[in-house]
Write a structure and sequence with these properties.
The longest helix is centred in the C-terminal third of the chain and has 14 residues. The chain is globular. Helix content is about 25%, strand content about 15%. It has about 140 residues and is of the alpha/beta class.
């Protein structure tokens, strides 16, 4: 259900945007591997380099064993160890649902926007919670 809409959104990134894709709260789903392997992303442009992060070291170790050719890192998505503007796209497949307070969500989205390229980066959020762009994204820039 999630893969096809993501493919459409990621299919045509800005030509000069970094081809790095960050998946936050990757867990043990196959989404990162599917995104890395997706042929539709490579038809007209170079492939995305997928980096996945999760808070659980156990999960990231298991995913590295399952997909040794992909990058799975253990880190807190609210405090990412990446330089500003490193990613052309960030995918949140539900991690924001786990953040209970408005302050936590604002801080989280500020961090995601920080690692996104400022002029053309895409933030793709899948949420069960209704997000309010004026409240949840306040101070994090205009959400993509």
């Amino acid at each position: 259900q999630l893969r096809e809409p993501l493919m459409q959104l990621l299919h045509a990134p800005p030509h000069d945007a970094p081809r790095r894709l960050l998946v936050v709260g990757a867990g043990d789903s196959e989404l990162s591997a599917e995104l890395a392997a997706e042929k539709a992303l490579t038809k007209t442009s170079p492939a995305w380099q997928v980096t996945s992060v999760d808070f659980s070291q156990e999960v990231t170790e298991r995913m590295r064993q399952r997909h040794p050719d992909l990058e799975f890192l253990t880190m807190d998505a609210r405090n990412l160890d990446f330089e500003d503007g490193q990613f052309g796209a960030v995918v949140d497949k539900g991690l924001s649902d786990c953040l209970g307070s408005l302050t936590d969500r604002r801080s989280y989205f500020q961090e995601l926007r920080r690692v996104l390229r400022p002029d053309g980066g895409r933030l793709l959020v899948v949420s069960q919670r209704r997000l309010d762009t004026d409240l949840d994204f306040e101070g994090s820039g205009n959400p993509a």
